[in-house]
Write a sequence for this structure.
């Protein structure tokens, strides 16, 4: 194989990453020269960088249909990565807009320059994770996202809850990283490679050579470690404390962007590396291939079911709205794991649609939570009492978001769950479908708790609630989109299929790439 130096590559396919890196560097330099002046301009510059990077991603998706790789597949530009990058960029754009409103109503974050460019470095880490096809670059992206997130959670330096949340996040994150590295060490020891495609081939050979126990053990370590990033059982206890202690825009960022990045690495690492274990056509029944197929997916199905059960039942007892949304996020991650168990032909569309719907309803809900909790100086659920009389449109929008999270027709969240439910029934995973239905019914109680407070409980004040302009923009866009894509979900699924699903085999992950 010909060896290229860095000047022989066509780096234009990585313009989205270079744009975010350049703007993060630019913001850090500008911040040094601003002195005590207002940092709001940094937020708008960061938003401009995100929009520009989004344009480059769309350009890649429209122009380049075949996967391109750099440095022997260490970085890979393909349809899968482009789709996830758009979710990351959309989430960060909403976070930045929400942050501008947050900075106006709160003075708890004093290091505002760091706030903005750390969000961009976290975004860069997520984008690297989505484009990696090597264990080394995957872990570099993971740690870049994680370390930036640890700091952002603790930026309310004078708030004890924020300090505690950041410390817990750091400790649990370090432990999960160690577990992931331990699982990776087994994979490397069994295959002698860090390239995911070579690993996929050699793990099959290692299994045939009698190393099945070690292979399954490495899968278990990786799945447990990655459960931290997507906040599922067994590594989920950090979530409510971190969500409560972080600034609300950062909580929304962790809910959507960090979780989506976690699912990106789950797809890249578990589905690509262990495709020999989860493809029932790889081995004949006589060679035991079917048993090999069932074990990893069964492990993921147990994690999915326990996450749905624990997340929804623990949310029932919560009165703090951010903690309630944290447990809701654990349950939502459980729902999102179901396509990883069923692995139907619509796996990619199901995953992307649900993440997109989750982005809309989560950011809309957190935007209203931020405005209401600041106005009432309380994060208790009772702070929403009488909201319909204070701000009818905010109450109606919050109702839409709660109905979508609960999976009620006609919302985007309903079709997200419906597609996943149908896939579980199609592959005869009836018990998993039953868990989905049962836990969804349980979730109605705490989601409808918001509705009960807004419409049926008197508040302590009837004064109109003034929403910041950024909050109004986010709520309007996300509420309308939640209803539109709930009424016409094919607008997203068909777009994803035609523009991000060309030649897909598990999300174009296994299509051979060519060096750019």
């Amino acid at each position: 194989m010909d060896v290229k130096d860095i000047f022989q590559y066509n780096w234009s396919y990585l313009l989205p990453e270079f744009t975010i890196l350049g703007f993060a560097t630019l913001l850090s330099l500008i911040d040094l020269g601003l002195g005590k002046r207002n940092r709001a301009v940094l937020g708008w510059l960061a938003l401009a960088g995100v929009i520009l990077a989004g344009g480059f991603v769309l350009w890649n998706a429209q122009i380049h249909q075949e996967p391109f790789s750099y440095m022997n597949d260490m970085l890979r530009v393909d349809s899968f990565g482009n789709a996830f990058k758009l979710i990351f960029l959309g989430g960060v754009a909403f976070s930045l807009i929400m942050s501008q409103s947050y900075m106006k109503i709160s003075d708890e974050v004093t290091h505002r320059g760091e706030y903005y460019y750390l969000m961009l470095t976290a975004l860069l880490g997520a984008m690297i994770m989505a484009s990696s096809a090597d264990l080394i670059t995957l872990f570099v992206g993971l740690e870049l996202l994680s370390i930036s997130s640890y700091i952002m959670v603790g930026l309310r330096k004078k708030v004890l809850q924020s300090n505690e949340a950041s410390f817990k996040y750091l400790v649990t994150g370090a432990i999960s990283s160690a577990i992931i590295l331990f699982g990776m060490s087994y994979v490397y020891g069994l295959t002698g490679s860090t390239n995911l495609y070579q690993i996929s081939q050699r793990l099959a050979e290692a299994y045939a050579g009698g190393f099945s126990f070690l292979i399954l053990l490495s899968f278990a370590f990786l799945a447990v470690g990655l459960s931290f990033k997507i906040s599922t059982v067994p590594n989920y206890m950090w979530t409510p404390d971190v969500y409560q202690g972080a600034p609300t825009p950062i909580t929304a960022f962790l809910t959507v962007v960090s979780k989506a990045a976690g699912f990106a690495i789950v797809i890249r690492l578990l589905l690509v590396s262990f495709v020999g274990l989860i493809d029932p056509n790889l081995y004949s029944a006589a060679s035991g291939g079917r048993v090999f197929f069932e074990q990893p997916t069964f492990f993921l199905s147990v994690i999915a079911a326990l996450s749905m059960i624990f997340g929804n039942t623990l949310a029932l007892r919560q009165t703090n709205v951010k903690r309630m949304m944290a447990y809701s996020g654990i349950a939502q991650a459980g729902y999102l794991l179901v396509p990883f168990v069923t692995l139907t032909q619509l796996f990619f569309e199901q995953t992307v649609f649900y993440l997109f719907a989750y982005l809309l309803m989560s950011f809309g809900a957190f935007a209203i939570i931020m405005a209401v909790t600041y106005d009432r100086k309380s994060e208790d659920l009772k702070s929403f009492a009488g909201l319909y009389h204070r701000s009818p449109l905010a109450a109606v929008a919050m109702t839409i978001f709660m109905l979508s999270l609960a999976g009620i027709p006609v919302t985007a969240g309903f079709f997200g769950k419906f597609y996943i439910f149908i896939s579980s029934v199609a592959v005869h995973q009836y018990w998993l479908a039953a868990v989905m239905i049962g836990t969804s019914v349980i979730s109605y109680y705490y989601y409808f708790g918001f509705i009960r407070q807004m419409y049926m409980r008197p508040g302590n004040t009837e004064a109109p609630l003034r929403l910041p302009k950024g909050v109004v923009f986010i709520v309007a866009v996300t509420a309308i989109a939640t209803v539109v894509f709930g009424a016409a979900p094919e607008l997203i699924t068909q777009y994803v299929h035609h523009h991000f699903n060309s030649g897909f085999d598990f999300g174009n992950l296994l299509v051979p790439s060519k060096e750019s």
